[in-house]
Design a protein that fits this description.
Order of helices and strands of chain B: EEEEEEEEEEE
Order of helices and strands of chain A: EEEEEEEEEEE
Shape of chain A: globular
Number of strands of chain A: 11
Structural class of chain A: mainly beta
Distance between the termini of chain A: 36 Å
Structural class of chain B: mainly beta
Oligomer: heterodimer
Radius of gyration of chain A: 13 Å
Number of helices of chain B: 0
Shape of chain B: globular
Number of strands of chain B: 11
Strand content of chain A: over 45%
Number of helices of chain A: 0
Helix content of chain A: under 10%
Largest interface: A-B, 26 and 24 residues
Largest sheet of chain B: 6 strands, mixed
């Protein structure tokens, strides 16, 4: 299994809602990532987990809360989002950190905040 | 913040022609990676070149890296309609950050 699976594929939420994005991989990768991508822009790094511990937080607002319950799963909890948070959220994983190997990306969750 | 820029921002070629795109980055790196993205979906890793390498080939892809100029290029030879996508370079220091991307259209 060489896939990174993200659910849901699409999500519409109001500014007062709480929702979660989920990401799963079964490749035994020990690093997992969240990226945010606006239309026609490059992906922007949000969080990096290494061996289930948060190693990088790119000064992301606290309304985004990552969680890594185990080595195969990565969640992104969303609360009180703003319309400008609407974007494609991409999860990725890698055998080692990105300074050594390439990343496997999921297909993303297209998020719309109303 | 973005690591650097890609050039050109968009490229339109005929099937069978070669496509060349360039990437510049700002900080020191361990490697430089190229990815393809179709229609706003997930990125697909194409090739990784390490900082001590100058050129690398993979199938129809050729990547060069000039660390003195902090730049890299990706050449796709004998392009196909299926190569139509956005291409991003990723500069990997202590984290992987992406350039602005090049949108490539290959016309049949």
């Amino acid at each position: 299994d060489t896939e990174v699976t993200q659910t849901p594929k699409h999500l519409v939420m109001g500014m007062t809602n709480k929702k979660s994005l989920k990401c799963e991989q079964h490749m035994g990768h020990r690093a997992m990532y969240w990226y945010k991508q606006k239309a026609k822009k490059p992906p922007e790094l949000m969080f990096v987990y290494s061996y289930e511990k948060l190693s990088i937080n790119e000064s992301v607002p606290s309304r985004f809360s990552p969680e890594c319950p185990n080595s195969s799963l990565l969640n992104l909890h969303l609360h009180a989002l703003q319309p400008e948070d609407s974007a494609l959220y991409l999860c990725a994983s890698s055998q080692d950190l990105a300074d050594r190997v390439g990343l496997f990306f999921g297909s993303g969750t297209q998020l719309s905040v109303l | 913040s973005q690591q650097g820029e890609e050039d050109p921002q968009a490229l339109s070629i005929q099937e069978g022609e070669n496509a060349t795109m360039n990437c510049s980055y700002k900080t020191s790196i361990n490697n430089l990676q190229w990815y393809r993205q179709n229609s706003g979906r997930g990125l697909v890793h194409l090739i990784l070149i390490r900082s001590n390498e100058r050129e690398k080939h993979s199938g129809r892809l050729r990547v060069t890296l000039d660390t003195s100029k902090k730049s890299s290029s990706l050449l796709i030879t004998a392009s196909r309609a299926a190569d139509t996508a956005s291409y991003f370079c990723g500069a990997a220091g202590n984290k992987l950050t992406f350039g602005g991307g090049t949108r490539v259209l290959v016309k049949p």
